[in-house]
Design brief:
Largest sheet: 48 strands, antiparallel
Helix content: under 10%
Radius of gyration: 50 Å
Length: 777
C-alpha cells in the first residue's frame, strides 16, 4: 500500500503537467502535421529532471487539441536518484480546460537508484525492485495541479499485487488519495489480503492515512477504523498509528481475539516491527491448551526476528484469567458465539462482564505485568510491576470417607510476583517477594491466612494443572480461624492439604486453649492432625469450670514436652514420644510414649526399649507430713474424672519408708478442690504446685512390699493413706506373709498392718479370730 502511494507521488513529481503544457508551443500552435521522433527534456541545476519522448505528435486546430502517440516519460529525480518510467499509447491535451488525459492504458514503473547514477547515458545502480502500476482515464489539470482518475488502478509490488478504484493527486498540496476499494495480496508462504476503504498520502508530513483497514492471512484477521502510517524518505514505514477501535482475531484450535481502542507500532528499515503500544483499554481472549482472557489499560510490545513478540508489558488495572484445560470445550463454543470482532461487531466486554462464559481459572490482578515470550508463542516468564495478586483454583480432599473433593481458592498477594512457564505455556513456578500474603479458602472451613517475606510455589504437570507446593520463608505468620502460628519457613502441600512449619515454630489454638513450640510442625487440614517434632513443648491452658480432679484437673494448665507429638483435633488427643514428659503443677509423668486427651482429661503412658513410665505423688508419713511417692510401671492409664491411675507391668512404688512391687496397681488420688475435699481436709496453700496426694492403692499380682525391718508377700494389697493401713491377702493355697528378723514369718488369711505404729493384725481363719502383734520398726 505504501509503495502504491509512493508511485503516484513520484508520478506527480515527473512534472508531466509542465512538459505536456509546453508541447503545443514547442510543436508550433498552428502546425497541423505529424512530427516524427519527438524528444523533450528539462534540466535544473545541471541535472536532467525528466525527458518526454513520443513516436509522433498531431496538432488539431479544432478546439486547440493535440495528440501524442507512444509516449514515454523518464524521471531522473533532482538528485539523479530515480529511474521512473511512464508510458502509454495515446494522450490528449485540451488547451481550453488545461486537462491532459490519457486515452487508454497507462503503465508506470518506479525504480530507485543510488544518487548521482541516473543521468541520461549513464549506467544507473538500481536499489531494490521496481514497482509496476497500470490505470486508465488519468487526467491532469495544469491550472489546478490536480491529477485524478475514477478508473481502477492495478499495481504490482515485489511483495504482491493489488488494486484501487479512483485516485486524486494535488500537486500543490502534495496530497495523494485513493478513493475506495483498495486491495493488496502479498506473496510468499503466508499471503496476506489487505483491504481499505480509502487512503490519503501527505507528502510534506510523510503520512499515509487509511480508513477501514482490514487484513487477513490464513487464520488471522485484523481490523482498524483509522490507520496512520508515518513514512521515511525511502517510503518504508517508520511508525503505524491506529485508532477508533482495533481488533485482531486468530482462528483455529488456539483461537484468540484482541481489542484495543488505539495502537501504535514502530518498524525498522526492513519493515521489521520493533515495538508496539496498545492503549485506551485492551481486552483479549484465547482458547486451546492455555486458554485465557483478560484486560489492561495499555500494553507495550517489543518484537524480535520475524515480527514475533518477545516482550509484552501490561499496565494499568491488569486482569488476566488462565482457564483450565478441562474447560476448553465450553470456552471455545462461547468464544465462537461471542467473539465476532471482525466478522460482525467487536466484542469489547471486560473480564468482569464475561465471568459467566467459563468457570474461573488462574487469575492475575495488579498494576502491571511483564511477559517474556520465546519464538513469538511460548511464555517464558511473567513478572508483576507493583503490588499484584494471583488467585488459583484448588481442589481439597475431604477428611470424611466417601465424600467428594471440595473446590477452593488460593489467593497470593505480593509486592512482586514472578511466574515461570513450562514448554506448554503452563505455570511451572511462582515466586513472590515481601510482603507476601496467601489466603486459602475452602467451603465450610475458616480461611487460612499466611504472611511472609518470600514465597515459591510449584505446580503439577499435565492437562489439569493445579497448585502443588508453596514455600514461604522469613517471619512466617499463619492464622486459620482461632489458630495462629509463626515460623521461619512454611511449606503448603496442596495434595495433602497440609502446612509444614520449620524453625522457631510457635502455634496456638484458642478454641482448645493449647499452645505449642517446636522445631517443626505439620498441620493437616484433611485429617485434622497436628504433628510436631524437635524440642516439642505444649501447654494446655486451664479451663474456667469447677472441677474436683486430681492429677489433670481442668483448673490448672497442663504442660508436655517430647521429641515428637501427633495431635488429633477431632478427638482432642495428643500423642507424645521420645523422652516425653507431662506435668501439671507438681504432678509429673515421664515415659517414652504419652497420650493425653484434653477433652476427657485422660492420660496413657507406656514403656519402650526398657525405659519405664514414672510419676510422683505424695502421701503422709507416720508423722502426717507429705512425702513423695514415686511410681514406675510399663503402662499407665489415668482418668481425671475418677482420679484413678491404673499402672500395669513391672510396677514399682517407692516412698520414704516402703517399696512396693506388683503386676498391677490402681492408685486413687484425693480431689484437689470441691465439696468432698473441703469436708475431708483444709486445702493447703501449696496444693496448686504440689503433686496429687494418694488416697488409696489397690495392687495385685506377685506383691512384694518392703519396709524397714520387714518384708511382705501376697497376691493382693490395699493401702489406705489416711490410716497408713495395709491389707494384704494371698491367692488360693498361697496365704500372705510378713517376715521380720525378730519375730520371724507370720502368715494368715489376711494381714493388716499399720505404717505409723507398726501394728500387725493377722486373720488366721475364716472366723473372726484375729491376732495382734507388733513389729519393731
Amino acid at each position: 500500500m505504501v509503495a502504491v502511494v509512493a508511485g503516484f507521488y513520484i508520478y506527480a513529481r515527473y512534472r508531466v503537467q509542465r512538459a505536456i503544457h509546453d508541447l503545443p508551443t514547442k510543436l508550433g500552435v498552428n502546425i497541423q502535421q505529424n512530427t516524427e521522433g519527438f524528444t523533450y527534456s528539462q534540466a535544473a541545476g545541471g541535472h536532467t529532471i525528466f525527458s518526454v519522448s513520443a513516436a509522433n505528435a498531431i496538432r488539431y486546430k479544432q478546439g486547440g487539441r493535440a495528440e501524442l502517440h507512444k509516449v514515454k516519460i523518464l524521471s531522473y529525480g533532482r538528485q539523479s536518484d530515480r529511474l521512473d518510467e511512464i508510458s502509454g499509447d495515446d494522450f490528449e491535451y485540451d488547451a481550453q480546460s488545461g486537462d491532459i488525459t490519457a486515452k487508454g492504458r497507462v503503465s508506470i514503473e518506479l525504480q530507485a537508484v543510488q544518487p548521482a547514477t541516473s543521468a541520461p547515458g549513464s549506467s544507473p545502480k538500481k536499489v531494490g525492485s521496481p514497482l509496476h502500476l497500470e490505470t486508465s482515464g488519468l487526467t491532469f489539470n495544469k491550472n489546478s495541479g490536480i491529477a485524478k482518475t475514477t478508473q481502477k488502478i492495478n499495481f504490482s509490488l515485489p511483495q504482491g499485487t493489488g488494486s484501487a478504484l479512483g485516485a486524486t493527486y494535488d500537486s500543490k498540496q502534495n496530497i495523494f488519495q485513493l478513493h475506495s476499494d483498495i486491495h493488496l495480496l502479498t506473496n510468499g508462504p503466508k499471503p496476506t489480503k489487505l483491504q481499505a476503504g480509502s487512503a490519503l498520502y501527505a507528502q510534506e508530513s510523510q503520512e499515509l492515512r487509511l480508513k477501514d483497514l482490514r487484513a487477513e492471512s490464513a487464520i488471522r484477521k485484523l481490523q482498524a477504523q483509522n490507520v496512520v502510517l508515518h513514512l521515511r524518505d525511502d517510503k518504508t514505514v517508520e511508525r503505524a498509528d491506529a485508532g477508533g477501535g482495533v481488533d485482531a482475531l486468530v482462528r483455529g484450535l488456539r483461537r484468540a481475539q484482541l481489542h484495543t481502542a488505539q495502537a501504535s507500532f514502530t518498524f525498522g528499515p526492513q519493515n521489521q516491527a520493533s515495538s508496539g503500544h496498545l492503549f485506551g483499554g485492551v481486552t483479549w481472549e484465547t482458547s486451546g491448551s492455555t486458554a485465557s482472557r483478560g484486560n489492561a489499560g495499555r500494553i507495550i510490545l517489543s518484537f524480535g526476528s520475524d515480527n514475533q513478540v518477545k516482550l509484552a508489558e501490561l499496565r494499568d488495572n491488569v486482569d488476566l484469567v488462565q482457564v483450565p484445560a478441562s474447560q476448553n470445550g465450553k470456552q471455545e463454543s462461547e468464544m465462537r458465539k461471542n467473539m465476532s470482532l471482525v466478522d460482525k461487531q467487536p466484542n469489547t466486554t471486560t473480564v468482569a462482564q464475561q465471568e459467566a462464559l467459563a468457570p474461573r481459572g488462574t487469575q492475575f490482578r495488579g498494576d502491571g505485568l511483564d511477559l517474556v515470550i520465546l519464538n513469538g508463542t511460548r511464555l517464558q516468564t511473567a513478572t508483576s510491576v507493583g503490588t499484584a495478586q494471583i488467585a488459583l483454583p484448588t481442589v481439597q480432599k475431604s477428611g470424611q470417607t466417601g465424600s467428594q473433593p471440595q473446590s477452593g481458592k488460593t489467593t497470593i498477594t505480593a509486592s512482586r510476583l514472578e511466574v515461570k512457564f513450562s514448554d506448554d505455556n503452563r505455570i511451572s513456578t511462582l515466586a513472590g517477594s515481601s510482603p507476601v500474603k496467601i489466603i486459602s479458602s475452602t467451603p465450610g472451613q475458616p480461611d487460612r491466612i499466611s504472611q511472609s517475606q518470600d514465597m515459591l510455589a510449584t505446580f503439577t504437570k499435565g492437562k489439569t494443572q493445579t497448585l502443588e507446593d508453596v514455600i514461604q520463608t522469613g517471619n512466617v505468620q499463619i492464622q486459620e480461624g482461632k489458630r495462629i502460628a509463626t515460623a521461619d519457613q512454611a511449606t503448603y502441600s496442596q495434595g495433602a492439604d497440609s502446612m509444614s512449619l520449620k524453625g522457631n515454630v510457635r502455634y496456638k489454638d484458642e478454641s482448645t486453649g493449647s499452645a505449642l513450640t517446636s522445631n517443626s510442625l505439620i498441620l493437616n487440614r484433611t485429617t485434622g492432625e497436628t504433628s510436631a517434632s524437635g524440642d516439642v513443648k505444649t501447654t494446655y491452658a486451664e479451663q474456667k469450670t469447677p472441677e474436683s480432679g486430681g492429677m489433670l484437673s481442668a483448673s490448672q494448665a497442663v504442660h508436655a514436652t517430647a521429641e515428637q507429638m501427633v495431635a488429633r483435633n477431632s478427638t482432642g488427643s495428643a500423642r507424645y514420644s521420645g523422652r516425653a514428659r507431662l506435668w501439671q503443677g507438681g504432678n509429673i509423668v515421664q515415659a517414652p510414649v504419652l497420650e493425653f486427651n484434653r477433652n476427657g482429661r485422660t492420660l496413657d503412658a507406656r514403656t519402650q526399649s526398657s525405659e519405664p513410665v514414672s510419676t510422683v505423688f505424695v502421701q503422709p508419713d507416720k508423722n502426717g507430713k507429705d512425702v513423695p511417692v514415686e511410681v514406675k510401671a510399663d503402662h499407665l492409664h489415668y482418668e481425671d474424672a475418677q482420679r484413678k491411675a491404673i499402672f500395669e507391668g513391672s510396677i514399682l512404688v517407692r516412698s520414704a519408708d516402703s517399696t512396693l512391687r506388683a503386676n498391677k496397681a490402681v492408685i486413687t488420688l484425693k480431689p484437689r478442690t470441691g465439696a468432698e475435699d473441703a469436708k475431708a481436709r483444709t486445702p493447703k496453700a501449696s496444693d496448686q504446685g504440689a503433686p496429687s496426694e494418694v488416697q488409696t492403692i489397690d495392687a495385685a499380682g506377685d506383691i512384694h512390699l518392703e519396709q524397714p525391718g520387714r518384708k511382705a508377700l501376697g497376691a493382693h494389697l490395699i493401702y489406705t493413706a489416711d490410716e497408713g493401713k495395709f491389707v494384704l491377702t494371698g491367692s488360693p493355697g498361697v496365704p500372705p506373709s510378713i517376715f521380720d528378723a525378730e519375730h520371724g514369718q507370720v502368715t494368715g488369711v489376711s494381714l493388716t498392718f499399720f505404717n505409723r505404729d507398726g501394728r500387725v493384725l493377722v486373720d488366721s481363719s475364716n472366723s473372726t479370730s484375729i491376732t495382734q502383734t507388733r513389729f519393731k520398726k
